[in-house]
Structures are given as C-alpha cells and as structure tokens.
C-alpha cells in the first residue's frame, strides 16, 4: 500500500522531533545544528525548515512534547490516589523525580527558560503541568484540607520551589538526595494543612 503525502509528512516530522530531542538533551540547545539533525533523521535540510522554520522552532516543538509528557506523567501518578492530599503529594514527587531524567532536566528545566524566554516557557508550563498543580490545590481548598486563599500565588510558589528542587536533585548524586528532597517536600506541603495550624 502506498504511503500518502500526509503520512510521509507526519513521519518526517516525527523523525525530526526524535532526533532533535536526542541532540538537545545530549548536547544542549546552543551546540545543535539543524542541518545535522535533518541529516541524522534522514531528511533534507529543506524539510526541516519546512516543518519547523528554524532550530528555535524545532526546539519549541520538542519542549512542548517533553512538557506534555511530563504533565501526563504527573497526572497519571496523582490519579492513582483517591485522597486529594495524596494526589498532590504523588504529583509533586513525580515531578521532582522527573528532574533526574536528562531529557527533562536539560530541555525543560535548563535550556527552555533561557532559549525561549521566561514568559513563553512559563506559558508552555501552564499548558502542560502547572494546571495540574492548580487543580490539586483547588481540590484541597474545596475539601477543607487547606485554608481558603488565593491559589494562583500559592501554585506559583510551589511550582517555582519544585523547579528549583528538581534541578538541585538532578545535579545531586545518590538516593539520599532524593530522600532528603521528599522529606523537605512533605514538610513544606504539611505546612499548608489546616490541621498543621
């Protein structure tokens, strides 16, 4: 059966995304050359420019893909629990653990804010995973687990703290750093509970 043009375009795009992801994670944004990504993906440089317009366009698409996957990973971990508090803890722990993934660390946490700029990176984060945190906090207010309060600043504080902790954890060696980070996270989160007052 003949491959349609649409299938061929989709395959080319997937190949470029996969190779771009591999190279951005391994070498960092500034060391990647779009023509080399295209060659390694088995497509022409013109095809790479047709699909993404530039190296920045390819990087933006890779960041969106990785952030989406991370958001799904966090949501899946949270959904394993019925209790809203345990959903929050599971989602936060999964996000922190993802910082040890070299793809997430290099592409999402290190290069994306610098390359795309804080505003664009933050907007992409909102679309993929930050909304899960906001939804978890809304559930906790609704159930009375945490006090009624403005949730946007709280979500941003927790998100920023977790981004920094994920970076620190990714650079720290050994399971003790992970255990220390989880204990610190639990102390931070427990300070939000009404029964902690």
Automatic annotation (TrEMBL):
<keyword id="KW-0805">Transcription regulation</keyword>
<dbReference type="InterPro" id="IPR001647">
    <property type="entry name" value="HTH_TetR"/>
</dbReference>
<dbReference type="InterPro" id="IPR036271">
    <property type="entry name" value="Tet_transcr_reg_TetR-rel_C_sf"/>
</dbReference>
<dbReference type="InterPro" id="IPR050109">
    <property type="entry name" value="HTH-type_TetR-like_transc_reg"/>
</dbReference>
<keyword id="KW-0238">DNA-binding</keyword>
<protein>
    <submittedName>
        <fullName>TetR/AcrR family transcriptional regulator</fullName>
    </submittedName>
</protein>
<dbReference type="InterPro" id="IPR009057">
    <property type="entry name" value="Homeodomain-like_sf"/>
</dbReference>
<dbReference type="Pfam" id="PF00440">
    <property type="entry name" value="TetR_N"/>
</dbReference>
<dbReference type="InterPro" id="IPR049484">
    <property type="entry name" value="Rv0078-like_C"/>
</dbReference>
<feature type="DNA-binding region" description="H-T-H motif">
    <location>
        <begin position="33"/>
        <end position="52"/>
    </location>
</feature>
<dbReference type="Pfam" id="PF21351">
    <property type="entry name" value="TetR_C_41"/>
</dbReference>
<feature type="domain" description="HTH tetR-type">
    <location>
        <begin position="10"/>
        <end position="70"/>
    </location>
</feature>
<keyword id="KW-0804">Transcription</keyword>
């Amino acid at each position: 059966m003949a491959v349609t043009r649409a299938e061929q375009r989709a395959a080319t795009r997937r190949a470029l995304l996969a190779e771009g992801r591999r190279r951005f994670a391994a070498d960092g944004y500034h060391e990647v050359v779009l023509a080399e990504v295209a060659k390694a993906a088995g497509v022409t440089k013109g095809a790479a420019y047709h699909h993404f317009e530039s190296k920045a366009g390819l990087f933006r698409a890779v960041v969106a893909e990785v952030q989406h996957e991370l958001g799904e990973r966090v949501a899946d971990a949270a959904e394993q629990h019925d209790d809203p508090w345990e959903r929050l803890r599971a989602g936060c722990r999964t996000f922190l653990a993802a910082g040890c993934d070299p793809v997430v660390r290099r592409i999402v946490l290190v290069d994306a804010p610098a390359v795309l700029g804080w505003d664009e990176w933050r907007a992409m984060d909102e679309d993929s995973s930050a909304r899960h945190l906001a939804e978890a906090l809304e559930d906790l207010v609704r159930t009375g687990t945490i006090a009624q309060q403005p949730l946007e600043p709280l979500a941003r504080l927790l998100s920023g703290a977790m981004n920094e902790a994920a970076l620190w954890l990714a650079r720290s060696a050994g399971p003790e750093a992970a255990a220390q980070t989880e204990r610190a996270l639990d102390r931070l989160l427990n300070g939000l509970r009404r029964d902690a007052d």
